[in-house]
Amino acid sequence: MNTIFFILRQTLTFSIPLLVVALGGMFSERSGVVNIALEGTMVFGAFTSILFINTVQDTMSGQFLLLLAILIAGVSGILISLLHAYASINMKANQVISGTAINMLTPAIAIYVARMIQDVQQINFNNTFRIPLVPVLGKIPGLGDVFFKDAYITTYLGIAILIVSSIVLYKTKFGLRLRACGEHPHAADSVGINVYKIRYAGVMLSGLLGGIGGLIFVIPTSTNFNATVAGYGFLALAVLIFGQWKPMRILFASLFFGLMKTIAATYSSIPFLLNLGVPNTFFKMTPFLATLIVLAFTSKKSQAPKASGIPYDKSSR
Amino acid sequence: MKLTEKIKHMDFSFLSSVIAIAVGLLFGLIILLISNPAQAMGGFSTILTGAFRDMRSIGRIMYFATPIILTGLSVGFAFKTGLFNIGTPGQFIVGAFGAVIVGIKLPQMGAFGAAIVNFKLPLLGSPHWILALLAAVILGGLWALLPGILKAYANVHEVIASIMMNYIGMYLVNYLVLNTVYDRLRNQSLGVAKSAIIPKLGLDNIFPRSNVNAGFFIAILAVIVIYIILNKTTFGFELKAVGYNRDASKYAGINEKRSIILSMVIAGALAGLGGGLLYLAGTGKYIEVVDILAAEGFTGIPVALLGLSNPIGVLFAGLFIGYITVGGDYLQLYDFAPEIIDIIVASIIYFSAFSLIVKNIIDRRRIKLGGGKVQ
Hints:
The structure holds 2 protein chains of 2 kinds. Chain A contains 13 helices and 4 strands. Chain A is mainly alpha-helical. Chain A binds chain B through residues 36, 83, 87, 91-94, 96-98, 100-105, 107-109, 111-112, 115-116, 228, 230-231, 234-235, 237-238, 241, 279, 281, 284-285, 288-289, 291-292, 295-297, 299-300, and chain B through 31, 35-36, 84, 86, 146, 150, 154-156, 159-161, 163-168, 171-172, 174-175, 291-293, 298, 301-302, 305, 336-337, 339-340, 342-343, 345-347, 349-350, 352-354, 356-357.
């Protein structure tokens, strides 16, 4: 039983960053801007916030520090996403190129700055953020073992982001406008919606969530930041597609991918999986293979936003 | 034609690359100035001139440029045929694995293997390395086949499919290396046989200790072949036509599905060749078993962009990236981390994404000057 709880906890740890980042990607793509810069955004958010933790951890610790770091990660994510927004919205640049540039830029900045100020590229931090047992709730059998033992507040934050995102996308005026800009920007424009502003908002939301996602990926899985988030941004992109650009499906996609990651990571310590004799590599590959398969079978009636990736040009109406 | 007429008709699109490079370098200079004002000018001039300090450095430019010319050619060729091949990291490493496995296993294949290894071609040595490169080409092409098929038949965007293939390829190669040609001590692939190493053809005498080898000539050969295919053959014309307008090409009788698949496969084969050339250079490069995508693959994107996807342009863009990389290596003398080069290259790509704007400005000026729209 304990093994199962452990696997479920690990799955949550791996899934929550995927969920948050994929939701960020959802806002960008549903506003009509393809964002393959999620990886770079995560790296930048993780870099600034871990550097911040590294700097102040002698005077601060615990949940308050983590919240501050999350704030910094989100703001720096927004800043880096503005580069992408400016290129893709104002300059009508190729969005994949701009995204690629950011993916190359942020790890380089992270390594360069780290090496200039502390000689080595790894930035260490003390993990004072883990909550061994949440009072009262942790005592609930089953549920408590999964959600309230060895927990991080980032898990609850991720769930909150999911709920808020669904409401924003489907129940608010802004959400409706955002979706309109991703499906048919000219129609949206004709009824007085400022397509540029909405798309800026979409990309900045993806920056916010991407930056936060970078931090909450690094915190539970490591004790240092080495200018990489191990392809998690691209995995989040796969989650987004696998989840067909819809919040609830994105949740299930990220849980599925998180489970695969967990199995790949904890494989050798779990006898049942070891006895199956399936190579570790298979579990690592599964998320990407599954996404390819889903793409192959759904793209005829794909749910992808219709205008995603196409720069909006007012004059081409 | 009068000179003014000639200027009016000249293609100025390369200016957008020049501007992107200039802005990118300027951005690099600003970062150097912020991080250490006293050393900044020295560091910056090292980036610009370091690669020309001796023959060894010049050789190193060519050595660095070789694989990224191939990946750049791969991305550029795909661009010309209307596809964005972001799958170069996967194709590159799968191709590299093909080269390494043939490079190691062929001599162990009995009499047949021994015959090939011991056969001597004039000038080129054993055909072993040629076969290993061929394996790289085939596997690289194969790795691009699936995104091509998915694009042609299921309308899956090749960018997304290629990104997935990158990770599948990386994990697969790690798995295969672990189970076939693994060096347990160093967590990497074993070294290839001597006969599988690309000959130097005397380049090591001209550029001592620089690792440059005949692979550079193969890169140039690939550039020429791709140039001819794209510009001088009906086949290349068809591929480009499908890139411009899939429906119109179909209407004109071109088998557009076949063209898309072939474009992807050729692009993949080029990236795979790049992987083969790097790992058969005999320079202490082994396939490391780590979960990191091949950087040389991604570098193909800036190379293609700077070269405007033109094969000749790609050759020079590859040499340019090689040149600032070699210059950047000397930056440590000035206490700067060499990653500044990656920052510069990334900002060059970012600004080259604006090329459309630059082109529009140039065109507009031209209309003003010439009184008519050119092109």
